[in-house]
Input
Amino acid sequence: MDQTARPAPGDGSFLSDIRTLRERARRHIEQGAITPGYQADRAAVVRLLNEALATEIVCVLRYKRHFFMARGLSAESVAAEFQQHAAEEQQHADQIAARIVQLGGEPDFAPEGLATRSHAEYVTGGSLVDMIREDLVAERIAIDSYREMIQYLAASDPTTRRMLEGILAMEEEHAEDLVSLLQDLDAPA
Ligand SMILES: [Fe+2]
Ligand SMILES: [Fe+2]
Output
């Protein structure tokens, strides 16, 4: 914005006037939550969210596999953690899919190409420690990609950004959980 055109703070004139807001809202009402004031590149956001959706689904599948295959002395508590993470990744997938629809896009649940669309990988892992390490790598990939998406969105789509910030916080918790599991098992990260 041109600095000289910036209104004085506190006079409320940085908001569009009521008539403009009302008129704009009546245009393209079929677009639902997407108003002419939406500032992000909608197609690009939907594409990014579909990559995030694929990542979450791959993470659900990997955690489920690890949950059922966990063996060994500490398997029970570690498996419970895998199960909880799987459920939380599923919630993330659902949140992301709902937002894609709200943005007028279509969530891509096609199994074909899922692993390619996903940022994180599906690695089965052999031992319990291998599984935890692979999950930690996947969480770290998710953390970086969510952080980048949040920076990309900045102020252009606050709703999507806030959703991603919530998900990012949980991926950071997941990573921390996994590091403590490795410590409990006396395994280097
Ligand atoms: Fe997640
Ligand atoms: Fe996670």
About this structure: Residues 42-69 form the longest helix (28 residues). Confidence is low (pLDDT under 50) at residues 1-9. The chain is about 65% helix and 0% strand. Residues 41 and 118 are 21 Å apart (CA to CA).
